[in-house]
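re the bet — no i am not wrong, look at it urself. input seq straight from the record:
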Amino acid sequence: MSHTRGIEPLLRAGEGFELAKVDPASTPGFDGGKKEGESSLAAGAAQLAQLQEMLYANGLSGDRRRILLVLQAMDTAGKGGIVGHVVGAVNPYGVHIAQFKAPTEEEKAHDFLWRIRKQLPTAGMLGVFDRSHYEDVIVHRVRHFSTPEVIEARYGQIVDFENELRAGGTTVIKVMLHISPGEQKKRLEARLDDPTKHWKFNPADIDDRELWPAFMEAYQLAITHTSTDAAPWYVIPADHKWYARLAVQQLLLDALGDLRQGWPEADYDVAAQKARLAGE
């Protein structure tokens, strides 16, 4: 994968998509290994930073467009790495990151999209959701927190919500980082073996492993019901962290490129300001 267009259709969950057929250890669109992947990621960072700064500058000048990156995954799949190694390469002033954990009592008292709306990116911003409104159809289905009827209705509410976002100028990029149970086990073991990573470990992660088939079924249903032209799902193999980061970076580059931005024009007389400086 060079930093050109082309990876998007390889990862997009289109009609007839089957999660079970995606190999978590594969690297669609990229023939190299880790070294080449990390080199490509570094090469794309400057371009991503420039395009994101342009988005931010235009937002300050009245452009209403913005980007929302939604990250969903089983634990240890690399959401934090995406935030740190991909999004971390751009100007933090133009980024809004929201991490959605179990809802508070106040949040439970509202519609499930209430807390999501409060964290949406404003004009010119790159928003990142570490988990999202999809917890309310994936986890709720697996853990039976809501009835099947409620979950079925939420699929439609989510589609309507994301159509509304798109109509308002938000480019929505939904990513599932697809990790294998074997690779997750290795990463959990590594956390337990390293005292500096114990804070990252949650015993509940092992409980979720016992429900892996149910989670995969819930992801399949969520993707099938809510992958639309306005807000498509991308399923990214995540057994190789370097590939998942590179793939997300490329999706962001493509989305920002599609905006066909330029730098905002000055709302003052540049020559006059130069003259003022020269005359000091």
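see?? The mean pLDDT is 94. told u. also The chain has one domain: 8-261. so pay up
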